[in-house]
Every structure is written in structure tokens, then in C-alpha cells.
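Co-fold these.
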Amino acid sequence: EVQLLESGGGLIQPGGSLRLSCAASGFTFSTYAMSWVRQAPGKGLEWVSSITGSGDSTYSADSVKGRFTISRDNSKNTLFLQMNSLRADDTSVYYCAKVWGTGPSVRYAFDIWGQGTMVTVSS
Amino acid sequence: EIVLTQSPGTLSLSPGERATLSCRASQSISSSYLAWYQQRPGQAPRLLIFGASNRATGIPDSFSGSGSGTDFTLTISRLQPEDFAVYYCQQYGNSPFTFGPGTKVDIK
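Predicted complex below.
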């Protein structure tokens, strides 16, 4: 069974850092691009960042560029999101998602989602 | 950035009725890189449609997608109780891979 399990969320003060992890199982992790999507309480979905299967190309929303870094360890089937300089408006549930197609592109819909991990930025 | 607009914001219907949801893009979406997701309360989103009109694995044929360019539609032919949820469109052709604000389908 294909599964994604996020971890690393919690309460953090403004300006702090947090590293999210997403453990993948049930598929050949290195052949799929992966993404992070977030959802603020009571709000809609916001794409955050994507990374190719090899990890050599990344893409990020302007709202997180320069603060968040997506990466992956294909030997450990794990996706990461390093979040620095956190702000109150980063408070959200963070989902990792797998794309449905293989290949060097990230231009695929997200077919498998984790259950999410909550990040709360507050003093 | 491609901005997606969804209408209506809320759709109030009865079980068994047909639902028609609209997603309009601020510029043409290349090669129909348009997806639809369903999100039930307290759950992660679920992929319904990719490539504007292709059903994802396990999605019933009561769900159908259509459209191209800047105008896309998700149709639910007969609403089942489990279909009352929020629906999002997303374009994944050009970074940033934006989502629409969502359409809530609730019980009339």
C-alpha cells in the first residue's frame, strides 16, 4: 500500500525554524516528484514546493522562497521541508503529496497525500 | 502566476441531484494540466481528475471533468451523501502550481 507519513510539526515561535519529514512507502520513491501543500485553519489549499525525483530541481511559491527549502533522501525514502524565519501566517497543516506520473518533470497532479502535520507559529 | 477562480463558492443541492462546478483560469493552461480534488472535513485532499478529464484510480464514473484553455468544469452526475465536500481545482502546468479557492457542495 502506498503511504505517506508526515512528522515534525508543532508549536514554534516567530522567527524560529522547523524541519518537516515525510516518510514514503509502497512505491519506488526515487522515480516520483514530490510536493508540499499547506492549508491554514479554515482556508483553502496552497502549493508550497515541489522537487523532482532525482532531487536536482526544485520549485517554490514566492511566499516561502528564501525561507523554506525542499529536499529528499532517496536512500531513506524521505522528503523534507526545512522552514526558517517562520511567521504567524505560516501556521497551517502541511501535507506531503506524491505525483501520479514518473519521469523528470514535476508537472503531474498529486495522487497520494499524507494526513498532514500541523505547524503553529505563535509566541 | 495563473490565478484560478471557482464558482459558485457554495452549491446547495439534494442527494441525487447533478452538480456542476466551474474553474476559470486567468490565462490558458497548457496541455490541460488541470486537476480536481475533493476534500472532506478533517481529511486530506483526494485526487479526482487529472489532465482536465481523466479520472484518477478508483474514482467512480459519476465524476467527470471537461474543458480546455481557461474554462474547466467538474460534473457530479448524481450526488451521493459522501460527495458533500469541498472541491478544488489546481493547475500544475506552470510554477507556481496554484489552487482555486474551492467550491463547497453542501446538503440543501
